[in-house]
Amino acid sequence: MSCRALLLVNPHARQGQKGLSEAINYLKTLGFILIEESTEHPKQLYEVILRYQHQVDLVIVGGGDGTLNAAVDALVETQLPLGILPLGTANDLARTLKIPNSLNEACNIIAQGNLHRIDLGWVNGKHFFNVASLGLSVKITQLLTKEVKRRWGVFAYAATALQVIWSARPFSAEIVINGESVRVKTVQIAVGNGRYYGGGMAVADDAAIDDQRLDLYSLEIQHWWQIILLLPAMRQGRHIHWESVRSLQGQEIRLYTRKPRPINTDGEITTYTPAHFRVIPKAVAVLVPA
């Protein structure tokens, strides 16, 4: 039985152009009828998905987490299932869902048709898969150019983080969660829906993308070098057990700062504080390994 799929590929993704023809040919051999769209601007993906929603059975997105984030609002609106071809630098959503970086294996997973409904995070009207954050991660996002990511791959995150860390300055924030208000002085607040972000760091050691909760951590360190000590623990999500890290969980969070601060969702700056976060349970169906 053939399946009609809208294939959206970000040509600027780290492996976008190289992997595109290989993926197209293999998907066709697996029986897919493809409508291929390539856009220079990921923000156009919303309109493209809405345009084709009644002509296809699913949407396949080839790119990184930023490309997936650009498509997420349209996926929620149309309720079309999502197939993922990990063509980006970090591929954190694919990592969370255990989708391998091998394109042929990723295509096979889409063809197997094993659908799993996952939660989404939501902040100020914008959905996200992995993490929304402010502070250090925003500065890293601002410095991470396409050229740096294409040249250095996942190592670009570590190199840029080291650049940013030594100049880190704490800011004040108020966190309202589970009916309580907490005032903090922090260099970073991250609110996670999935498990991985930032090139393979874990939000929390027990975070999952279908646990119907948000995991918040706040880095409340005194000196920049303390972040260096934390980095190995952040790969496993064990940083939440450190004394200098505040860890909170809930389904709804509000965040206030003295002046508006940019918020990065899945690696793209999309909104500002004050921020209202929610988890949207089982919001999207994704094709995952059986």
3D structure, described in words:
This protein has 290 residues and is α+β, with helices and mostly antiparallel strands. Helix content is 31%, strand content 36%. The strands form 4 sheets. A 6-stranded antiparallel β-sheet has the order 6-5-18-15-8-9. A 6-stranded antiparallel β-sheet has the order 14-13-10-7-16-17. Helix 1 packs across helix 5 and helix 2 runs parallel beside helix 3. The chain is globular and about 55 Å long. The chain starts with a strand and ends with a strand. The mean pLDDT is 88.
How big a fraction of the residues is strand? 35-45%
The N- and C-terminal alpha carbons lie at a distance of 20 Å
What is the typical, i.e. mean, pLDDT? 88
SSE succession: EHEHEHEHHEEEHHHEEEEEEHEEEEE
Pfam families: DAGK_cat (PF00781), YegS_C (PF19279)
Keywords: ATP-binding, Kinase, Lipid biosynthesis, Lipid metabolism, Nucleotide-binding, Phospholipid biosynthesis, Phospholipid metabolism, Transferase
Domain DAGKc: 1-127
Protein name: Lipid kinase
Which properties best describe this structure?
290 residues; alpha+beta; six-stranded antiparallel beta sheet; 9 helices; 31% helix; globular; YegS/DAGK_C
